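Quick one, T. Sequence first:
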Amino acid sequence: MAKAAKIVHGDGIPGAGPLTYYLKPRLASPDYDTAPKINFDFLRLRVFWVYQIPNIIEGLGYFGPTLYLPSYASTIGLPPIAGPLTVSLFNGTLVIGTVVLGALSDRLHVTTVILVTAVGAGLSVFLLWGFAVSLPMLCMFSIVYGFFAGAYSTAWSAMITAVQESDPSADTGLVFGMFAAGRGIGNLASGPVNEALLATQLWRGHGWLGYDTGYGALIVFVGVTALASGASWVGKRAGWV
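Structure tokens:
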């Protein structure tokens, strides 16, 4: 029996081989042979860059306060707990600001929401951090700055919608990734820039309050980048978006 089985298999397989040509697959062949093409055409749109350039600028200054608040608190003679406290306040109000301004973006044009975050963050830097030489004032700055600056990225969804209105084929995830990358570029560049500004010790001994601590140049830089992050509102007024 075993020998017979070997003979059958030995003769059957070569004999059936040519018949496989006439066999057809059960599943239909796909209509395409390659993966769908990734569309980067939105990078040529003016509306994308009206939002992206201020987004990069915002990233340049955004992380400065959270990185240097502990050392700033030490410089003005506050107790060791002041540094972690101010950073915690920033992170706590960031969540609140994200919820509030996120809801606001559903009712107002995205450039208006961006302007609110930019002005709120910028003024808090110049008027609160710049004058902060006590723990209550520094805590107030952390609260206000966290509320406004931390909520900037909530506008990304509306920014993506604005880009897709000009290019419906733009992929949501890809546009989001570009905005995240833009902020990341600003973040990476901010480290060396901030260190260089601190090294200047601008206005130290010749300034006033917070501007007299050696952090004056950094305070001004963060404030200017915060205000400049609202430039897309100017773009809308100019008819670019």
